[in-house]
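Duplicate of earlier report; dTDP-glucose 4,6-dehydratase input re-posted below.
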Amino acid sequence: MDAYNSALTTNSMNLLITGGAGFIGTNFVYYWIEKYPQDHIVVLDALTYAGNRDNLERADNHPGFTFIHGNILDQPLVENLLVSHHIDTIVHFAAESHVDRSIQGPDAFIETNIVGTHTLLKAARNIWLDKDPRPGHRFHHISTDEVYGTLKSDDPPFSETTPYAPNSPYAASKAASDHLVRAYHKTYGLNTTISNCSNNYGPFQFTEKLIPLMITNILAGKPIPVYGDGRQIRDWLYVDDHNRGIDLILKKGTPGQVYNIGGSNEQINLDIVHQVCDRVLHTFEQNKTLARTYPDCPCSKGIHPNTLITHVTDRPGHDRRYAIDAAKIQTELGFTPKETFESGFQKTLNWYLTQPPKT
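Output:
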């Protein structure tokens, strides 16, 4: 029995996950397979620099998993997937997401984040509302707290009613895509939801981001770059806590609504850097074999890795503080983070230590 006909005979969900070979998408795939093994998952990923097909190697053993190498800008491909795999749920992770890259080359962010999202919305409308009506469909769009701009030290955290004020090309492109998703719900009746999350960390994250960059640089004995004075404040969310929030939104969220997902864990960047250094050193002290695997790491020589901290010129337009008010998803859907920063970081570090050393 093929995937389409099998889906017709069960109560399983059929999900299209865009960007599923990237950081959060990969973790979401594994989270969903473990929790809902009866469901069918199709991953659509263009495999750009931040997407890695090898990330999903374990998912290939799952009978309900399909990987498609393709681009969200290809509307005929997306429409074919929606029909042939009987898709009822789109979870849209695919995005260009690195602020520095958006400053250096904003065009790719406009193309992927705005035009790509609009292409998906057009495909969903065309199939779900016109050609193959599916009343129980859901288009869930993953966004970011950066669309809200920056906060002063005494400002209240971002809520779902905070006005948008993006300060980078990345944030502006995500803000535009959020507005398109909202418009397709209001104008056409597409069942959409949006989640705006705080800074994620965890396994599979590309090494341009702060925490994996710190870990990999410490292990290689390379400088740890810190922007400006390092006093920027971020709210940190372990990736599977984020996925639990998305799960709740898909199962219990109201179409047309926006939900902020945060870790209730505001911390100064420089404090995070020092915590990471302390935790890596402690891990090396507990496991002496790591010194042989990572001979260039200062921890292997009994040297504290905070000696690698190097302050660099701040990025243009660097937002000073982000903070998420997650009261809505907590009160309406029952969300609470399971991981503290300490427990989530140790899981993250343990995963990176299982990866082959970078040469």
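Residues 3-205+236-266+323-338 form a domain with the Rossmann fold fold (CATH 3.40.50.720).

Merging into the original ticket.
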